[in-house]
Amino acid sequence: MIGGGPAGLTFARVLHRHDHPVTVLERDPAPDARPPGGTLDLHENLGQLALDKAGLLAEFRALSRPEGQAMRILDTDGTVLRDWRPRPDDRANPEIDRGQLRDLLLGPLDVQWGRGVTEVVPGTRDGVLVRFADGRQETFDLVVGADGAWSRVRPAVSSATPHYTGVTVVETSLDDVDTRHPDLARLIGDGSVAVYGVNRGLVAQRNSGGHVKVYAQFRAPLDWHTSLDRHRGVNRRAGLDAGLGAVLGAGLDLADVEAVRSRLLALFEGWAAPVLDLLRHGTAFVPRPLYVLPVSHTWAHVPGVTLLGDAAHLMPPLGVGANLAMLEGAELAESVAAAPGPGDLDEAVRAFEEQMWARAGRWAKFTMAGLERLVSPDPTEALAFFDEVQPS
Ligand SMILES: Cc1cc2nc3c(=O)[nH]c(=O)nc-3n(C[C@H](O)[C@H](O)[C@H](O)COP(=O)(O)OP(=O)(O)OC[C@H]3O[C@@H](n4cnc5c(N)ncnc54)[C@H](O)[C@@H]3O)c2cc1C
């Protein structure tokens, strides 16, 4: 198994439950080598099903935040347009911090940290050859690439590479929101608050311990921060309003926190003051241009190598990527554990791939269409999208 994200750890944990040997090779030098990222909602029929297969559902329920399913949508002037609150017994999509989920999955697993893979070569005499960044190499019977968007395993089965969606997210955070920013704590509530404007949006999500992640999202060319003049024409062709191009501008140093803050405040100029406070009080700003793999990405089966999660079907972050990754990890692990011999193993992997492609293809279409509507020239599309997907 290459990669210790949600896909890789769920795969390994389910195999471990079946007393099946598995080696997890992870590039990060340690579990907490980088910030784990924001909160994840795990759906009953996807991520929670995977945790059930790993025997971890009860522990998940004890850690997760059902109240985090609350969702409020504001107009740019601060008017509350929608305010969804979960019923007390609603367990459809509870939230969990990524770090908590990682630790839950890690449990007794023996992960080899600091083992970045550079290349995978199938079909050698001794099996599938894996080359590592430190110059070492090893062979395996089956290599599962769960190494995310920029997978180094993917080239062994497919020539597809991720492409930019035209939407960039800039992430910032607030700490101790209940004590330091009680007004913002009330605005965000127990779950999330979202505001949508023309080709842009602001979303704030509560994590545990009073931590909040704020995502400013907007349509812009990939190098929006470096060259204004080149972008004027691109923005026009992409149907962007002139204001967006002018605001984003040239020569922005992304490491300069105050410069990024003031550009973002200009981008959201005119929005209600409490909404802008989400940016005013944000700490560091991390740009995350959204990349995707082609919708319905498949490949000709290669014996001994397969992909899971973002490595197989990177899609816009509309709340399903980790869920699919985990369910695929659990399902592949069950198939591998049930296969009596090497020939059966290959057949099991083939069958798994067909099932994964069909399901992921449907979700990729849904999330691509969702992104178009959430970051859209017509903000009423975002509201209509939520009206369709939120349980009433
Ligand atoms: C802003 C944002 C919000 C999101 N919110 C949600 C949400 O609410 N719900 C949801 O379901 N999904 C969400 N997603 C999507 C979700 O994060 C991903 O789909 C999910 O993390 C995919 O899991 P994975 O295990 O396939 O890949 P990853 O989580 O990317 O894990 C890959 C692992 O492989 C390791 N790795 C990478 N390269 C190598 C290498 N060469 N050698 C060895 N190891 C390597 C990495 O260090 C990492 O640990 C969100 C994404 C973003 C960007």
TrEMBL record:
The source's domain of life comes to Bacteria
The name of this protein is Flavin-dependent monooxygenase
Q: Where is the signal peptide?
A: none
What the entry says about domains is:
Consists of an N-terminal FAD-binding domain with a Rossman fold and a C-terminal substrate-binding domain.
Which organism is the protein's source?
Answer: Microbispora siamensis
Using the UniProt record, give the first listed, main subcellular location. cytoplasm
Reported cofactor(s): FAD
Q: Where in the cell is it found?
A: Cytoplasm
* Record field: catalytic activity: a tetracycline + NADPH + O2 + H(+) = an 11a-hydroxytetracycline + NADP(+) + H2O
